[in-house]
Design goal:
mainly alpha; CD2-Gal4; three-stranded mixed beta sheet; 45% helix; 6% strand
């Protein structure tokens, strides 16, 4: 035995010597354990459930080659040969399969007044060479240099900083979301495709910022001198260049089997969808959502639900919520505008779907189905929980509607009583949700409620009202059934006005302070008048460049983009389904009050569609005059139409719209059928 022990001692190897490092996280150093230095949180801390306290300040004397992330040298013409910046009036194509082209607008369009500029259609600059790209300088005061230690060149790092400090919160819309402010930023530390996509979105945000000028006589006018790098064309071109790099890197990673996880693919899919929606390429966005839904469905089928929660369960839950909302958005878009294939998103993956019990993709269990009347909690502790329940309910309703449409196409339009009963069950669930949500709604004006929380509460209430209207009219044979919801249409308008006024007041205070010249109030001052949609200057105290006083409507609310839905879909329902002449015009005015893009939904497009439908239906009625008898005139049944199909180009602000009689199948004769181009 002793000999064996001695032999073992002789063959024992000493640990190989390695230089000591002091770059591990502070928590691991205190615990005296080896840190793997994963950023932003090391694996040891994550697995042990501890909070990673971060890393010590960088010291170049302690830097070792093993701690350096290898980066391929950037060629002098990086990104320009593989992703050339297009010349004026050429087509820019994305690198995604099947994506459509974005046709640049004429550069001269941007020279007009700020109110006529389309913030989502910035001009494409003339041809840029590598020398001109490298000579562009960005003012360090405009773009503070980030100290993030990421593999960026200076220009990319500046746009990343824009995303981190501004874009991430803007994309969340009316809700706080850690997906943008935490998950995406963490993933960008290790994935080049996500990193480039984040930079691209930061550049788009700067594009939007530059084309949205401040109201006249604002303390921070946009006509001040700017550097050559701080211009809309420069930001726009750089955004497309980075987007092309992001797609290329993701393709390379997939083909070389270098993708770390499905999570990386899904987050990239969200970012690509966001970019496509931002620039107005709704077709590519819809296809990208469908691809992401397919990846999630495959992932869920391949894995079984464990008894103990795995580390990535929280991540999957977060991505599941994100794709649930994007699926609802894409499906609502299809329900409103009736796109032809292949631009119709499919939520149902069951080859033999059952209207009696439609499945839910937000249910991460394999092979399970969602109950139609899933129990609604007795209370919502916060707006986040209320939103999760409403999202899940809306998703099941969208799936049910999808299968209902399929049933109508193969049947004689006679639905079994059981199917109708199941549909009305959704209405009861929505009613119960509103009852549970009522305390939060009532407290939205309570002290301590933040502006973002108040806006989120309003948006959830508007969404629930809209969904209830659509559920209860799903079986309607004509448009007259919408008249019973006039009080609900009025409620949607009032909630939207409340949100917009809050937003306008907050921005006016933030940008102009108490000395804002766009709102005149006080004794003896009668020149200005605040409206729910901005500031109407009836006789501006400050003359314009031509010496004349302005008579236009100004708003501190700049054009905006968010990936989440907000107030546009509910207002669109009022604009197209309410035949109360006052409410309809009010909804259209609210849509045009500020240019918003919520995912694929564009406020100006929806206002244009609503205005045309209104004009078609009101032919033969007296001209509308507020407060007079014409306001009470009702559109007769034989004049009412609905949107049947639409093709459009958001970048060119043009659409071809077709309307017709509700219930008439495609191909059958329709005496009310109309078709017209719409521009805005």
């Amino acid at each position: 035995m002793a000999d064996a022990t001695e032999t073992g001692n002789k063959v024992r190897q000493r640990r190989a010597s390695r230089p000591k490092v002091k770059t591990g996280c502070n928590n691991c150093k205190n615990r005296r354990v080896k840190c793997d230095e994963t950023r932003p949180e090391c694996t040891k801390c994550v697995r042990s459930g501890r909070r990673c306290d971060g890393y010590p300040a960088y010291n170049p004397r302690n830097r070792h080659a093993s701690n350096t992330l290898p980066i391929a040298p950037r060629p002098s013409n990086a990104g320009l040969e593989s992703h050339p910046i297009p010349p004026h009036n050429t087509i820019v194509t994305t690198a995604l399969p099947g994506s459509t082209a974005l046709v640049p607008r004429n550069t001269s369009r941007i020279i007009n007044k700020s109110r006529s500029i389309s913030p989502f259609s910035p001009p494409t600059p003339s041809i840029l060479t590598p020398s001109t790209i490298n000579s562009i300088e960005i003012d360090s005061e405009i773009f503070p240099s980030p100290t993030l230690g990421l593999p960026f060149n200076a220009k990319e790092g500046q746009y990343f900083q824009v995303f981190r400090t501004h874009t991430a919160s803007e994309l969340s819309g009316f809700f706080d979301s850690e997906f943008w402010t935490r998950s995406v930023l963490q993933e960008s530390h290790s994935e080049a495709s996500i990193r480039h996509a984040v930079v691209a979105l930061g550049a788009l945000y700067k594009t939007l910022e530059k084309v949205a000028e401040s109201p006249p006589s604002s303390p921070t006018p946009s006509n001040q001198g700017t550097s050559s790098g701080d211009s809309a064309p420069t930001h726009w071109s750089f955004a497309w260049e980075q987007y092309g790099k992001a797609v290329t890197r993701m393709r390379q990673s997939i083909s070389n089997n270098e993708v770390r996880s499905q999570r990386t693919i899904l987050i990239s899919s969200v970012l690509f969808t966001c970019f496509q929606s931002f620039v107005g390429d709704h077709k590519a966005a819809i296809k990208q959502v469908q691809v992401g839904l397919g990846v999630m469905e495959k992932q869920r089928r391949e894995r079984k639900k464990p008894y103990i929660q795995r580390e990535d369960d929280i991540v999957e839950e977060e991505l599941g919520q994100m794709f649930t909302r994007m699926a609802i958005q894409a499906k609502s878009y299809d329900m409103a505008f009736h796109f032809p294939a292949p631009w119709v998103i499919r939520l149902s993956t069951n080859p033999n779907p059952s209207l009696a019990n439609p499945p839910s993709p937000s249910d991460s269990s394999t092979g399970t189905t969602a109950s139609i009347e899933a129990p609604i909690p007795e209370s919502f502790p916060n707006i986040h929980e209320a939103r999760l329940v409403l999202d899940a309910l809306c998703e099941r309703i969208m799936r049910y509607n999808e299968e209902l449409v399929g049933f109508y196409t193969v049947s004689n339009n006679i639905l079994p009583a059981s199917i109708k009963s199941n549909g009305y069950g959704f209405g009861r669930s929505l009613e119960q949700w509103q009852t549970t949500f009522a305390p939060l709604l009532a407290k939205r004006r309570a002290p301590g409620t933040s502006n973002i929380e108040r806006a989120g509460i309003i948006v959830l209430q508007m969404t629930c009202i809209m969904t209830r209207i659509l559920v209860f009219t799903a079986f309607s044979a004509n448009e007259m059934d919408f008249d019973q919801f006039l009080p609900r249409f009025a409620e949607i308008n009032e909630l939207a006005k409340e949100l917009i006024v809050d937003e306008e007041l907050a921005l006016a205070q933030a940008r102009c302070g108490a000395g804002c010249k766009h709102v005149t109030s006080g004794p003896g001052i009668k020149r200005g008048m605040r409206t729910p949609f901005g500031v109407k200057v009836t006789s501006s105290p400050i003359p314009g460049p031509d010496g004349k006083h302005s008579h236009e409507t100004y708003s501190h609310i700049k054009p905006s983009f968010a990936l989440d839905l907000g107030i546009i879909p509910p207002l669109f329902v009022v604009a197209t389904k309410s035949r109360d002449r006052r409410l309809r015009r009010e909804a259209i005015s609210l849509l045009t009050s500020s240019h918003r893009r919520e995912g694929m939904w564009d406020s100006r497009l929806c206002a244009g569609v609503g205005n045309w439908i209104m004009n078609v239906e009101e032919e033969g009625l007296d001209p509308y005059v507020k407060g007079e008898a014409s306001e009470k005139q009702v559109v007769p049944d034989e004049k009412r139409v609905m949107v049947m199909e639409m093709w459009f180009n958001l970048e060119r602000r043009w659409a071809m719209l077709r309307c017709g009689t509700r219930g008439v199948k495609k191909g059958d004769f329709d005496a009310r059928a109309r078709e017209t181009p719409v521009s805005w």
